[in-house]
Amino acid sequence: MDLFRKICVYISSYIPLYFLILIKELVEIANGNLTFNVTNTTMLLVNLALIIIGLVGILYTYKKEQYQEVEIIEAKNLTCQNFLPYFPLFVLFALAFDLEFISMSVVYLLILAMVGIVYVRNDLFHVNPFLNIIGFSNYEIVIRSGGETKKIHIFSNKKIRPGKMFANSIFIKNAKKTKKN
Questions:
Q1: For residues 172 and 138, what is the distance between their CA atoms, to the nearest angstrom?
Q2: How crowded is the C-beta side of 153, counted as CA atoms within 13 Å?
Q3: What tens digit of pLDDT does each residue of 134-166 get?
Q4: SS3 of 120, please?
Q5: Could you report the per-residue pLDDT of 38-97, keeping only the tens digit for each?
Q6: What do you get for the CA distance between the two ends of the chain, in Å?
Q7: Which end of the chain is less congested by CB atoms within 10 angstroms, N or C?
Q8: Exposed e or buried b for every residue in 68-88, given b needs 16+ CB within 10 A?
Q9: C-alpha to C-alpha distance for 49 and 10, rounded to whole angstroms
């Protein structure tokens, strides 16, 4: 997977956070507690842009990235192990950060950048709460592909069982069934 797609997939993992922050800021503005000043408007636009970039990255990876046939030897669902550690980070950002202050906005963006560097450099793509929320589960699977056996993390919106499937760097799909004449 190229660097651009890695960054998009990382950004997508925080879509629930960006959404919570957007809602929080809009409710504060609607209640008259905040105004549409430069900082608030910029942060609203930044979070909206991050949502769009994340969605486009996930859709592109799911629909357009090359899939190859693999044989599943073993599969273990790890969704609950990877989702819950992210939840406190969402709460911290959504509740504790007042993004109408420039200093808090800068800290917010720096934290996202630092976490992103670690996420991308260490290929932590199996940690993606957004995909979990929209119905994908994270699996650790043992595959055989091209005569080689390896263990990988992958997302699927169906239960994975041993057998032939198609996988790319993040997603796995059922093998297409051919019609018999």
A1: 10
A2: 14
A3: 989 888 889 887 788 888 888 888 888 888 888
A4: helix
A5: 888 888 899 999 999 999 989 988 887 788 888 889 989 888 776 666 667 666 666 666
A6: 38
A7: C
A8: eebebeebeebbeebbeebee
A9: 14
